[in-house]
């Protein structure tokens, strides 16, 4: 029941992020300020972001999917392998359909903000969904470590898309929510035969420790990000300091979303796969 609620909240969250940040003038203007801030550092940071962005292409999606499915098959968990495949495929198809066919972008601002909808981010969905698949496929005791790796990889991709001005912050937040929605939904539908085997240990409080650390990191970054973003929305032309505030707030917001969704999926997976 709890996993289904998480899936529903995540799905509604995608709509809410779009409604606030894309449909409203203040939302578009806030993200445009973040992009102007990113433009000041793009040349210097692109050399760090470009290699990360290459991992969000089709090759990584295919290779990562095969690895995640293979982990489940090596463990003899055929239904889990199916869950992994459905999660990765479902999240990425959802992102592309929602972006191209369902959501729209009003033309409140001129220039880069005009016309084409880019929410959710495809690159972020690729990275987050592959790691989410690995989280489902991994043995119970290794899931906390996979969650840490997934949080780091997803955060890196999320920040890279902002740094290189490929996506707006709302695109990234929506992408990780799409992945969490699919992951939580499949966890809610986990059949008895796909549960962890009796005797599999998660190392005592290891899962709790990792989830708390990820959640705390998400909370801390959100506490800093929200006021930074709030100071930008609704104002006129910003000085350089305001653009930097918007840029920093955007980076912290996507970091917070990446950490929080990873922590949530770890908790949901461990709870729904607990052996009976």
UniProtKB/TrEMBL annotation:
Q: Which InterPro entries match?
A: PAP2/HPO, PAP2/HPO_sf
Which keywords appear in this protein's UniProt record, sorted alphabetically? Membrane, Transmembrane, Transmembrane helix
Q: Which Gene3D superfamilies match?
A: Phosphatidic acid phosphatase type 2/haloperoxidase
Q: Does the keyword Membrane apply?
A: yes
List, for all copies, the residue spans of the domain called Phosphatidic acid phosphatase type 2/haloperoxidase: 80-187
> What stretches pass through the bilayer?
57-74, 79-98, 118-138, 145-166, 172-189, 210-235, 247-268
Database matches in SMART domains:
acidPPc (SM00014)
One Pfam family here: PAP2
Stated name of the protein: Phosphatase PAP2 family protein
UniProt lineage: Bacteria, Bacillati, Actinomycetota, Actinomycetes, Micrococcales
């Amino acid at each position: 029941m709890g996993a289904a609620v998480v899936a529903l909240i995540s799905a509604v969250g995608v709509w809410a992020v779009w409604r606030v940040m894309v449909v409203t003038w203040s939302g578009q203007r806030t993200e445009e300020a973040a992009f102007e801030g990113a433009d000041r550092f793009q040349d210097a940071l692109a050399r760090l972001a470009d290699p990360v962005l290459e991992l969000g292409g089709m090759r990584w999606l295919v290779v990562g999917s095969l690895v995640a499915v293979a982990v489940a098959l090596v463990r003899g968990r055929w239904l889990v392998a199916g869950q992994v495949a459905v999660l990765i495929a479902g999240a990425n198809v959802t992102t592309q359909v929602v972006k191209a066919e369902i959501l729209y972008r009003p033309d409140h601002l001129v220039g880069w903000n005009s016309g084409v909808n880019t929410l959710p981010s495809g690159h972020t969905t690729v990275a987050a969904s592959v790691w989410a698949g690995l989280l489902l496929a991994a043995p119970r005791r290794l899931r906390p470590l996979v969650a840490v790796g997934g949080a780091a990889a997803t955060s890196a991709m999320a920040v890279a898309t902002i740094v290189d001005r490929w996506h707006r912050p709302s695109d990234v937040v929506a992408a990780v929510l799409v992945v969490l929605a699919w992951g939580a939904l499949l966890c809610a539908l986990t059949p008895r035969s796909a549960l962890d085997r009796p005797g599999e240990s998660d190392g005592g409080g290891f899962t709790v420790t990792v989830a708390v650390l990820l959640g705390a990191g998400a909370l801390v970054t959100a506490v800093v990000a929200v006021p930074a973003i709030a100071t930008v929305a609704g104002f006129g032309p910003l000085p350089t300091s305001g653009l930097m505030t918007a840029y920093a707030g955007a980076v912290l917001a996507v970091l917070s979303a990446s950490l929080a969704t990873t922590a949530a999926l770890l908790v949901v997976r461990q709870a729904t796969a607990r052996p009976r």
